[in-house]
Amino acid sequence: MNKIIDVVLENYGDIYPEIKEKSSFIKKIVEAEEKRFLETLDKGTEKLIDYIKSSNNNIIEGDFAFELYDTYGFPLDITKEIAEEYNFTVDENSFNEFMELQRKKARDAAGEKEYAKMNQAYKYIGDEIKTTKFTGYEKIIDESEILYIVKEDKIVDTATEGDAVVLITKNTPFYAEKGGQIGDTGIIKNKNFKFKVEDTKIINNEVIGHFGKVINGNITTGEKVELIVDGERRKAIRRNHTATHLLHKALREILGEHVKQSGSLVTDEKLRFDFTHYEGISNNTIKEIEKLVNEKILDNLKVITEIKTLEEAKNENVMALFEEKYGNEVRVVKISDFSSELCGGTHVSNTGEIGLFKIISETAVSAGVRRIEAITGIKSLEYLNEIEEKLNIISKHLDAAQEIVIPKILNLLEKINTQEKEIKRLQEKLTSQSIDVFNVKKIGETKIYTKIFEKVASDVLRNVTDIAENKIKSGIIILFNKNDKKVNFIVKVTKDLVDKYHAGNIARNIAKELGGGGGGRPDFAQAGGKIHQKSMILLTTLINLLTNKGMILRSVLLHY
Predict the structure, then answer these.
(1) Under 8 Å between Cβ of 522 and 493
(2) C-beta of residue 266 within 8 angstroms of C-beta of residue 354
(3) Domain check: are 536 and 442 in the same one?
(4) Rounded to the nearest 10 degrees, what angle do helices 76-85 and 23-54 cross at?
(5) Are residues 210 and 242 in the same domain?
């Protein structure tokens, strides 16, 4: 599909020049999306075909169709198309019920019921005072007056010790959660009370609410108060926020101008930055990004803020998120001549305050969107100390100096790998020799060969199944493998019997008896379950034949 883009560029490139500028990025994103979808299609198709072959009727049940959709991203339309090829139908009513149940869970998880109706107290206050004056750019301690106290969804005049309430003041140094930066915490107090601010949020319009609990005393509307932001926490947030701007610019310089912010989270613990990019970033490139950011930190660049008109900011090519709504006046945060972005958050005065910048993870969020998590300041020191401590422990256990720990580990891994291969070889030899001693049962003219092993490698068990098939020529082979509190097993139906018996159905029904699951092809299947009690022994007597589309076997468990 990405080849179609050339036609779009040819016809619309002059009208929409941005698609020409980003044509390479667009092609890679489309290609990545198509590849991901085809992989999903392959996995879903394979699972669906297995289901159809093992089905006893011509209906795709709604729960299975929904599992394909929810777990594998397999569209219902494609499920229906494949089903029709095999003369199957899909129980769409049941599918829709599962879909609605999932939507309800999502709504409940998001607290939709709470968001659906605005707290009427917040609405009234927001409409009345419109905005709270924020003084936190200049100070972290300020004085103000309590305008409103909100308890649950009611405006009250007083609050007493232990009450969870929201305080609204005339002005505040507390930053309210916005633009990815979390809200401040701290203390509001006077001689009559002490209130712990646990979070700060916008409640309506631009009105800031201080969420928390009365630690002691009584609060009354109209009181003069002192507002004290947790200074150390604010410093950590500022470090991470400015580091986010440095990271954004570094990504654009190293990965390309196609990089754009797609979301962020700035806390006192770490920073998280989502951005547009079509592929994972190599370790070497991550090191390059880290190095550039740390170089700018060591340069101790000045961080300045300016209030400009939106038009002025656009003319200066200041970075902005096009999804955001901006007023006529905007706040521009500049890091010397390296970075310039529209931002309402709090920042350090110079980059040297940030300390060490360290990327701790780089992952995919969705096709074309990557995520970097990083730490700064004291958190970076704690991170390095933790790594050093782990290295010291490894060094001690290996009885090796730190500089030779890696070669020694690699040497040990090589030895372990060799020994594991030898163990598998011996295990395979021993299990192969024991297959002559089968527990053999006959059901009609069909022989059922069963045997129980303990703690055998899964690939060894598969090899033993093949050896057993060569020996017995005709029959059903069921090999159990007990491992601690679990049991896995393989069912093999020889080719001459696949018209009568289905290995996948046999495995699935045995697994049900064991509290597990599994399945597979008509000739070969794998499954597993639990050993429910310490004294339980799996008895390999197979009974209860059912006839529908082929024979289905079930197992019986014997306790003693």
Answers:
(1) yes
(2) no
(3) yes
(4) 50
(5) no
CB-based burial label for 234 (10 Å; 0-12, 13-18, 19+): buried
With DSSP H G I counted as helix, E B as strand and the rest as coil, what are the percentages for the chain, rounded to 5? Answer: 40, 30, 25
User: Where residue 519 sits, what CATH number does that domain have?
Assistant: 3.10.310.40
CATH of the domain at 125: 2.40.30.130
Of the candidates 114, 140, 155, which is a domain's last residue? 114
Q: Are residues 247 and 377 in the same domain?
A: yes
Q: Which of these three, 383, 399, 419, is where a domain ends?
A: 383
User: What domain range is 545 assigned to?
Assistant: 435-559
**Which residues, including other chains, have CB under 8 Å from residue 352's CB and lie 6 or more apart?**
297, 298, 300
The alpha helices in 434-480, defined as continuous H runs, are 458-472
Q: Which two tokens stand for residue 159?
A: 């609050």
- pLDDT tens-place string over residues 215-237: 999 999 999 999 999 999 999 99
Residue 462: the pLDDT is: 79
More confident residue, 365 or 290: 290
**What dihedral do alpha carbons 404, 406, 408, 412 form, nearest 10°?**
170
Chain mean pLDDT for the chain: 84
Residue type, 173: P
Residue ranges of E strands in 95-229:
133-134, 141-151, 154-156, 158-160, 164-169, 171-172, 186-190, 193-204, 207-220, 224-229
Angstrom CA distances, 282 to 53, 287, 293, stand at 43, 9, 17
* pLDDT above 70: residue 18: yes
Count: domains in the chain:
4
| Judgement on whether residues 182 and 211 belong to the same structural domain of the protein | yes
The verdict on 208 and 70 lying in the same domain is no
Residue 257, classed as helix, strand or coil, is coil
Beta strand 207-220 with 158-160 is antiparallel
Please give the average per-residue pLDDT across 488-507, as a whole number: 86
For residue 424, tell me if it sits in a domain. Answer: no
> Are 503 and 538 contained in the same domain?
yes
- 408 lies in some domain: no
The dihedral region occupied by 485, where left means phi > 0, alpha psi between -120 and 50, and beta the remainder, is alpha
Place of tokens 């806390």: 267
Distance CA 538, CA 371 (A): 48
Residue 418 lies in a domain: no
Cross-strand pairs, 520: 525
* Alpha-carbon gap, residue 189 to 213, rounded angstroms: 12
Q: Which residues contact 49 (CB under 8 A, 6 or more apart)?
A: 82
Residue 63 phi/psi, 5-degree rounding, is -65, -35
Task: Please check whether residues 365 and 501 belong to one and the same domain.
Answer: no
Q: Is 82 helix (H, G, I), strand (E, B) or coil?
A: helix
Q: Are 145 and 12 found together in one domain?
A: no
In a domain, 394, yes or no: no
DSSP 309-341: EHHHHHHTT-B--TTS---SEEEEEEETTTEEE
Phi, psi for residue 479 in degrees, rounded to 5: -110, 125
